[in-house]
């Protein structure tokens, strides 16, 4: 069971958990109708207008070194399955985006605190639900309503998400099969490499004519790979 804390407005649901993680129980989920300082990966701002689902889930128990990417798999696949319930086919843009026909429908921001081991993981998600105009981002963002034609209650989406997340354990293979990155080419170490897999820790596995590499997600420019996909 998840304790659900709801806000009409908040700076950021991830930041709320970060500030209060000692007092919050494991699996608490914080949801807000809007965020005034929503954050994305690499210090990007996450514009958080009313109409979408902004939420963060706290994990404090039984965490290991592999939990970070394990949870990335669980969250990404839960969103892919959630979208299927609206007849929407999506793909995972490694590491943390969910796209529909190359347009972003969900962004995931997982944050952790380490001391000797991991103290907590915050699993933050922004799911575009009822927004129909993304202004200058119209060519690269979409929503459940735009894709399905349905205006959906945010509470229903939240409950569907929790149902899927709490009742499934997805495998690395599920994540790989639903990822856009496998088979793409990238320059690494002055060699042209093919992405041949993803490890359970979240490393990309690359193969050139001579060598094989295991690289961290921040060691390479993913732009290069995904630009190729967009063209
Ligand atoms: C990204 O695509 O870069 C990740 C975006 C993550 C946005 C969500 S919205 C809920 C949670 N609170 C935040 O401040 N960010 C995440």
Primary descriptors:
231 residues; four-stranded antiparallel sheet; 6 helices; globular; binds biotin
Task: Provide a short characterization of the protein structure.
The chain is an alpha+beta fold and 231 residues long. The protein has helices at 13-20, 67-84, 144-148, 154-167, 172-177, 222-230, and strands at 4-10, 29-35, 53-59, 91-93, 97-100, 103-114, 118-127, 185-188, 191-198, 204-207, 212-215.
How would you describe what is shown here?
The chain contains six helices and eleven strands. It is of the alpha+beta class. The strands form two sheets. The chain has a seven-stranded mixed sheet, sandwiched between helices. Helix 2 (67-84) crosses helix 4. The protein binds biotin. Residues 12-14, 35, 38-41, 44, 46, 54-56, 96-97, 107-109, 124-126 line the site of biotin. Biotin binds at residues 12-14, 35, 38-41, 44, 46, 54-56, 96-97, 107-109, 124-126.
């Amino acid at each position: 069971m998840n304790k659900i804390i709801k806000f009409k407005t908040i700076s950021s649901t991830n930041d709320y958990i970060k500030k209060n993680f000692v007092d919050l129980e494991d699996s608490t989920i914080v949801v807000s109708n809007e965020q005034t300082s929503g954050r994305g990966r690499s210090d990007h701002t996450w514009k958080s207008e009313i109409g979408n689902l902004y939420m963060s889930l706290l994990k404090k128990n039984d965490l290991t070194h592999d939990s970070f990417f394990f949870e990335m798999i669980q969250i990404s696949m839960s969103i892919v399955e959630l979208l299927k319930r609206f007849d929407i086919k999506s793909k995972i843009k490694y590491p943390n985006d969910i796209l529909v026909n190359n347009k972003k429908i969900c962004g995931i921001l997982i944050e952790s605190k380490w001391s000797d081991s991991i103290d907590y993981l915050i699993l933050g998600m922004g799911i575009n639900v009822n927004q129909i105009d993304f202004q200058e981002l119209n060519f690269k963002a979409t929503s459940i309503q735009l894709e399905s034609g349905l205006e959906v209650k945010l509470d229903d989406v939240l409950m569907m998400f929790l149902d899927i997340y709490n009742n499934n354990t997805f495998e690395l293979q599920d994540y790989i099969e639903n990822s856009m990155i496998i088979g793409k080419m990238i320059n690494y170490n002055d060699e042209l490499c093919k992405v041949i897999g993803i490890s359970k820790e979240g490393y990309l596995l690359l193969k050139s004519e001579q060598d094989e590499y295991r690289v961290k997600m921040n060691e390479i420019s993913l732009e290069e790979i995904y630009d190729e996909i967009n063209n």
